[in-house]
Specification:
CATH superfamily of the largest domain: Zn peptidases
Structural class: alpha+beta
Number of domains: 2
Helix content: 40-55%
CATH class of the largest domain: Alpha Beta
Strand content: 5-15%
Distance between the termini: 69 Å
Largest sheet: 7 strands, mixed
Order of helices and strands: HHHEEEEEHHEEHEEHEHHEHHH
CATH architecture of the largest domain: 3-Layer(aba) Sandwich
CATH topology of the largest domain: Aminopeptidase
Number of helices: 12
Length: about 425
């Protein structure tokens, strides 16, 4: 509601919020079309060629400058639209004459098992415009499809990008949408290499790589049980021999190593590495120990930004749960949160007793509840952006909190605490 007592800034912010919501509603069919297209055509990590192209085509049509292959990843992209730089197209009934808002730094949700994210940095001025990014995930799981809701995450990010991109010339700043592939990867791969022999006639002449791998799984369970309860080391054996009567020459397994903090995770990794070395020495195998992706850090939520986003959820009648999640999966957004202010919110699409990484969860992303969640995320992200672009004081508070977090991390972890980690790759 507009009242005579409202300040110029408050009035601008209110009108801009309303406009973002209207654009999302008008473009709902396009946003949900992305969600459904990704669901019908799931692609695995690092192979998301069609998915990335779909998202990039939508953003190009909206006037974004798009760079593919970002960071050396073939299916990644970075799309940006800056004030005065985007391709201007008429949009019937946008009604932006009085005010507009743009930019966002927050999250898109996919229920209790998956969510997208974004980040914000900058201040509103000609010298230092606000730069805000949405992160769109779009890889799927083998045999399950979008059972972590990445199709929903991508649709919400695209929806927010469409809405705020059309208004960026009115408020200034820069809007970015990052295509972030290969989130559903496995952290550590271990190989044991032994020696083949006839498993019945001459087992003593062989070196059993599978036996060594089984011992590692027993060791991983010991590590888990002797660590704090929220350490996770799930693993699968990918290769363990070719026939029962041949001593397995090669065994391969992948493990996902997760812990509440980066130092705790690194300690678990070190313990796993020592067990691999010990088992190899005892069995006579050689080994390989390598990371298949970058290790994930814990998520550092910017509380100032989170409270703004929470308020916009409340305005839509959505109740929130603020306590830390009891069951936390892998989170690449944690790495981002150490480098820029960020939030990673979740919007529920299933009851709490439904697990992610299941067919039930995948199906939920294309239900009416899932679709409404995507639109809700797009709207609330846009409204969060409006607050940032209309309020330099808010941006300053977000940055102050972020600077304090980094200073504290440096004190407890030392210089270079967020530097890229160089894990040694051992080959037999």
């Amino acid at each position: 509601m507009v009242t005579p007592r409202m300040s110029e800034q408050a009035l601008e912010k209110l009108r801009a919020r309303e406009e973002v919501a209207r654009i999302v509603e008008r473009e709902a069919s396009r946003i949900l079309g992305v969600l459904e297209a990704l669901y019908r055509d799931p692609e695995l990590s690092g192979q998301e060629v069609r998915s990335a192209r779909l998202l990039m085509d939508v953003l190009v049509a909206e006037g974004f400058e798009v760079e593919s292959g970002s960071g050396g990843l073939p299916t990644a992209f970075a799309a940006r639209r800056r004030a005065g730089k985007g391709v201007q197209r008429p949009h019937a009934g946008t009604g932006t004459g009085a005010a507009a808002g743009t930019g966002t730094g927050a999250s898109a949700g996919a229920g209790f098992g998956g969510a997208g994210t974004g980040a914000v940095a900058g201040a509103r001025s000609a010298a230092a415009p606000v730069r805000v990014g949405f992160l769109a995930e779009y890889d799927a799981l083998p045999g399950l499809g979008h059972a972590c809701g990445h199709n929903l995450i991508a649709a919400a990010a695209i929806g927010a990008g469409i809405a705020v991109g059309r208004l960026v010339d009115l408020l200034g700043g820069e809007i970015l949408v990052f295509g972030t592939p290969a989130e559903e990867t496995i952290g550590v791969q271990v190989e044991f290499h032994g020696k083949p022999a006839h498993a019945v006639a001459h087992p003593d002449k062989g070196i059993n790589a599978l036996d060594a791998m089984i011992q590692l799984f027993i060791a991983a369970d010991h590590i888990r049980r002797s660590s704090r309860r929220d350490v996770r080391i799930p693993g699968v054996i990918l290769e363990g021999g070719v026939r029962p009567n041949v001593v397995p020459e090669r065994a391969v397994a992948q493990f996902s190593i997760r812990a509440p903090t980066s130092p705790e995770r690194d300690e678990v990794v070190a313990r796993m590495r020592r067990w691999v070395e010990s088992i190899a020495l005892a069995s006579g195998c050689s080994f390989a120990f390598q990371f298949t992706d970058n290790p994930y850090d814990e998520m550092i939520t910017n509380r100032t930004l989170a409270e703004i986003y929470k308020g916009h959820l409340a305005s839509e009648g959505v109740a929130t749960r603020d306590e830390p999640r009891e069951h936390m999966g892998s989170l690449d957004m944690g790495n981002v949160s150490f480098r820029v202010p960020a939030i990673h919110a979740y919007v529920a699409i299933v009851p709490p007793d439904v697990a992610s990484h299941t067919q039930t969860f995948a199906l939920a992303t294309v239900t009416q509840t899932g679709k409404q969640a995507a639109l809700l995320a797009a709207k609330t992200l846009g409204r969060t952006a409006v607050d940032l672009l209309c309020d330099s004081g808010l941006v300053a508070r977000v940055r102050e909190e972020f600077a304090a977090m980094r200073a504290a991390a440096k004190t407890t972890r030392g210089e270079g605490f967020d530097a890229p980690r160089d894990y040694i790759l051992d080959r037999p």
